[in-house]
Amino acid sequence: MSLIDKMLYSLTLSQLNEILMAHGFKKYVSEQVFKWLYRQCNFEITSWSNISLAAKNFLQENFSIALPQILRVDHSSDGTKKFLLSLADGEQVETVYIPFNEERHTICVSSQVGCPMGCIFCLTGQMGFKRNLFAGEIIAQYLAVTFWMRTNVASDFKLTNMVFMGQGEPLLNFDNVKSAIEILVDSRGIALGQRKITLSTSGWVPQIKKLNDFPPVNIAISLHAVDDVVRSKLMPINNRYDIHALFDAIKEVHLKAHRRITYEYLLIEDVNDRPEDIDGLTQLISKRDSKINIIPFNDYPESPFRRPTDAKIIWFQEELLKRGLVTTIRASKGKDILAACGQLKNEFSKS
């Protein structure tokens, strides 16, 4: 078994407890381990004072708690930070820390090395696909950024929100993403609230139908167009699962009270910012349990697309609001370091 398969972070509390009890350790040991890792951010097993020497030796012999190496951190003028992380097998992923205010600190995590979806507006899609991340590699992104921030910024720093909007299609890594979310929301560990986690998908229909097996986190659908011709040009997945199939699958998702499906709509000049696009959104999307999040296109070198003017963006939002659709405009963060939506490619600015 390779080192990467033995990450302690890949285990949910129940899985860790099952392993430890099978080797003669008490049930409470697994909860103590979770507290050291996820509450204390302590990665020195030998210093875990309330855990027996035998348990420490077992953990050290059978699991790794090494964090990914941070190869570089880029700093945006708006406070966003982009981390390039090296995994145990030498592959690399990017993770982004996004500060919104003093109370809200968000991490945007990757779920795959590269991405197989090939959306033509997305820089990550140019990387191709290499492999899925293990659950532990997703959790380790959270821990690596937390530890770096506590060491370099503030000793009491805490991430409050997580979005699965980095590199990769989360639903193509269903089991590992599900395990990671179970670890994230466990009250005895990281204890992120379900409402503080958002999973974004480009629309992998078979897995959308399985989302009822997930912890009830926020769901975001990358829509980006209202007809199959335009969406297929932007997103090859639409050739396999068209808009009709996508919305049929979404209807099967059971939402908790007062929850909404968020539809991400990347606004691109002269592509999907027309009056007929507003009409199409009005016809497609339920006013009762939906929200539209307009994402103005983030330019990057050699992109064939352009961002609409600010006036056009505001007009688009106001027209949707007039039609009774809850609509917001996402504030782009980290554009100057290629850390904004659709800009991640394991590369850094030369600043």
Task: Describe the secondary-structure layout.
Blueprint: H1 13-22, H2 28-39, H3 53-62, E1 69-75, E2 81-86, E3 92-99, E4 105-108, E5 112-114, E6 129-132, H4 135-152, E7 161-164, H5 174-185, E8 197-201, H6 205-208, E9 218-222, H7 228-234, H8 243-250, E10 261-267, H9 275-284, E11 290-296, H10 310-322, E12 327-329
Parallel strand pairs: 4-7, 7-8, 8-9, 9-10, 10-11, 11-12
Antiparallel strand pairs: 1-2, 2-3, 3-4, 5-6
Helix pairs in contact: 1-2, 4-5
Q: How would you characterize this protein structure?
A:
This protein has 2 domains: 3-62, DNA polymerase, domain 1; 69-337, Alpha-Beta Barrel (TIM Barrel). The protein has helices at 13-22, 28-39, 53-62, 135-152, 174-185, 205-208, 228-234, 243-250, 275-284, 310-322; strands spanning 69-75, 81-86, 92-99, 105-108, 112-114, 129-132, 161-164, 197-201, 218-222, 261-267, 290-296, 327-329. With 351 residues, the protein is of the alpha/beta class. The model has no long low-confidence stretch (mean pLDDT 90). 30% of the residues lie in helices and 18% in strands. Helix 9 (275-284) links the parallel strand 10 (261-267) and strand 11 (290-296). The strands form 2 sheets. The chain has a 10-stranded mixed β-sheet with strand order 1-2-3-4-7-8-9-10-11-12, with helices on one face. Strands 5-6 form a two-stranded antiparallel sheet. The chain is built from 10 helices and 12 strands. It is an enzyme of class 2 (transferase). Its cofactor is [4Fe-4S] cluster.
